[in-house]
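quick one before i forget lol
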Amino acid sequence: MTFDVRRFDIYRKVPKDLTQPTYTGAFMVGLDIQDEMGRHEVGHIENSMKVPLNNGYGCRFEGEFTINKVPGNFHVSTHGATAQPQNPDMTHIIHKLAFGEKLQVHNVQGAFNALGGANRLESNALASHDYILKIVPTVYEDLSGRQRFSYQYTVANKEYVAYSHTGRIIPAIWFRYDLSPITVKYTERRQPLYRFITTICAIIGGTFTVAGIIDSCIFTASEAWKKIQLGKLS
């Protein structure tokens, strides 16, 4: 399964004075990948790019990588850095986070980029962010019978500052995922001719029925008016 993360911005606050370290965010932040098959990569860099923002006080992370179809997680952190910043800032904006092939179909409105637009810039700078993703396999079959496969996902999140017996734990942005046993399938079908004919007949029949009711009302009103004029209305 291919995971695609694009335009993921992470910011670090400006130092209060010159005694604080000024590590550049783009070089401190890295991507780690883990799953239940034993995979554990620290500082994954293949097909990824980190672009400095705000004069080095933040970075934009863009990348695409493959994950196994088993529960696991990937997280953005400074775990792979040789020197840890004293005051890391994990506030961020997620522009795009998607799994699998992109479905460009106008009549399919799904949660293929459920985290797109998530803004955590006002969060606690020292907090970790935990996104729980439930990935739903999705199949789209067009009129020719060709199938395309993608993935939607639902998300829940929490924010917390973690501590251990040694002190505060280095914050990170976690994406913990699991696959749903249910598959969503969209099938494109052309409307059969008999349904079109039935619809036309229903419209014509309804038009005649409404016209008959209006005609009956007009006729009744006309007869009543005639009786009034003749003075025979009882």
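fyi The first strand starts at residue 2 and ends at 11.
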